């Protein structure tokens, strides 16, 4: 696979995927020490989606996300130290500690906000696309959300409007419970809750181009997003992309149930005995290992090169953790700042 | 320990109501508690499996569904989850349910109970910390209950059921593990506030989590030689101005703790009583402790700075005594 992305882009994408993994591992470490305020959601298992989509975007494009935004920020090039500081509620974060994990943003990178309200972000992304169109700017708006968002009315309204007015928007639906039997009506978190079986059917009846992509296939995600962006710029309207991944077994209270990622598993194909219960993660579902294997297979990188990337990423992450830990909490009077634009 | 927890008593009260009345159903995607409390709620959900409609995350849809079910003979208790999610269902909660009886000349009833865990839950940040109660007080035709003490939940649920009025149950995310307040004794009717501590120096008014804070403040004030009277509002609509006036008539001093924003809040509504009905009862200005008018920040020191804490209530009461 990976025949389309240029070699350097492949390696950079892999580096970002690994950086996301290391950031989430650091988050989980901090949470073990009760230093992460509030409930948080990690991006482990979905790295190829965020990185694939966002690598295909232009600097002028806008990105919107949800409660599961850490990976999207890093994919966009956000500073991992500032990202982590924000998650910890520190003054060194992108929002000075006001946003935290739920509302990650990097405004300078055209990443204005993440909404913690399921589906609420989708119409906002469509509105930015309208602004792009109205102002005749050659940019698109991309929004990444979970399949749960397709249970809310806001999603339908936004899809309809975007398709009706051919707005340049990419709807990226991250279906991270692809392994769940898609029998309608389960009524639970991480279970199918829609009367339809194929989520993309909903967008198709609204006249949108739809695509279903395997979330382990970085190249397919990148290509899908690139093509969708081109269609949007040509005035052909929105694309609805469903990217499917299996649920990472680390669960609702994120715990390192699959250990700390060891890149060598990509070529040793070993499943550490303590993680035997989650063998499928090592053999198939881990996007980081999966992409590493493809890079090796296609001769794009050798083991040494991958290990070098790992060392450099781990070094960068250590600096980020240091920065976030050293960053002070904001002083109490900061609470009153930024209610209004200054 | 667990038996005396507010949350456990609350779940039992819901179960009792469901056992007495087969038309009571639960509709919603959420729980009566946070994720940490599912163990206490599971038995209820197991017992009434076929009377629970587990919905998609579709607040607008399922709140409307509950309104329709209420019109046709069911009594739905709607678990909206976090209070902020009520905004997703606002059209049904404030523009449909409360208007229907009036719009039908009194002929159509909408006996429905919306339930949400509102409030500053600690580290919920801006979009998971809403206190929608003051806004809900602007929906004429909507009854609002806000029990703070476990002993009140069953009677208020029963009374709301019998009233056949659309009702919003303001529950607080932090109340679940509170253990005070299962005291025996007469339980006031729906619409009556309760004097939960007698005192002569200063009146502290609260509801939901702020009532718990008022009681803790009263205990601290006692040590400082200040005898506080504490009023639990129990319901926000109707709002029992008589009991408040009676108490302030005695103490002449009033502190109100209310997590809502200051403008058009529960506290400002209570303060307004003293511009007419309670005119002349005060010896000192009213102290209103609200959450200042800023979105809820994530960072713990910022959030803590803004909450009407026990210490702030104590300080306000002391100031009034000087
Ligand atoms: C309007 C609203 N209702 C309910 C919730 C509670 N909630 C938080 S995450 C979530 C599930 C989201 O699932 P999905 O969109 O598939 O994203 P995932 O967590 O699987 O990435 C729910 C229901 C919410 N945040 N907002």
Structure description:
- The complex is a heterodimer of chains A (342) and B (322).
- By secondary structure, chain A is an alpha/beta fold.
- Chain A has a single domain, classed as Rossmann fold.
- Chain A contains 12 helices and 6 strands.
- Chain A has helices at residues 7-32, 47-55, 70-75, 80-87, 121-134, 153-164, 199-204, 218-233, 265-268, 279-285, 287-297, 303-326, and strands at 62-65, 113-114, 141-146, 169-175, 209-214, 239-244.
- In chain A, strands 2-1-3-4-6-5 form a 6-stranded parallel β-sheet, with helices on both faces.
- By secondary structure, chain B is an alpha/beta fold.
- Chain B folds into 2 domains: 3-181, Thiamin diphosphate (ThDP)-binding fold, Pyr/PP domains (Rossmann fold, 3-Layer(aba) Sandwich); 194-321, Rossmann fold (3-Layer(aba) Sandwich), CATH 3.40.50.920.
- Chain B has 11 helices and 12 strands.
- In chain B, strands 2-1-3-4-6-5-10 form a 7-stranded mixed β-sheet, sandwiched between helices. In chain B, strands 7-9-8-11-12 form a 5-stranded mixed β-sheet, sandwiched between helices.
- In chain B, strand 1 (24-28), helix 2 and strand 2 (52-54) form a beta-alpha-beta unit.
- Chain B is globular, with a radius of gyration of 19 Å.
- The mean pLDDT of chain B is 95.
- Classes of the chains: A alpha/beta (342), B alpha/beta (322).
- Chains A and B meet through loops of A and helix 3 and helix 10 of B.
- Thiamine diphosphate sits between chains A (41, 67-68, 116-118, 145-149, 176, 189) and B (57, 59, 81, 85, 88).
Q: What's the gyration radius of chain B in Å?
A: 19 Å
Number of domains of chain A: 1
CATH architecture call of the largest domain in chain B = 3-Layer(aba) Sandwich
User: Number of domains in the coordinates of chain B?
Assistant: 2
Q: Count every helix of chain A, treating DSSP H or I runs of 4 or more residues as helices.
A: 12
CATH class descriptor of chain A: Alpha Beta
- How far apart are the first and last residues' alpha carbons of chain A, in Å? 49 Å
CATH superfamily caption of the largest domain in chain B: Thiamin diphosphate (ThDP)-binding fold, Pyr/PP domains
Strand order of the largest sheet of chain A: 2-1-3-4-6-5
**Elements of chain B, N to C (H/E):** HEHEHEHEHEHEEEHEEHEHEHH
Under the CATH scheme, which class of the largest domain in chain B?
Answer: Alpha Beta
Low-confidence stretches of chain B: none
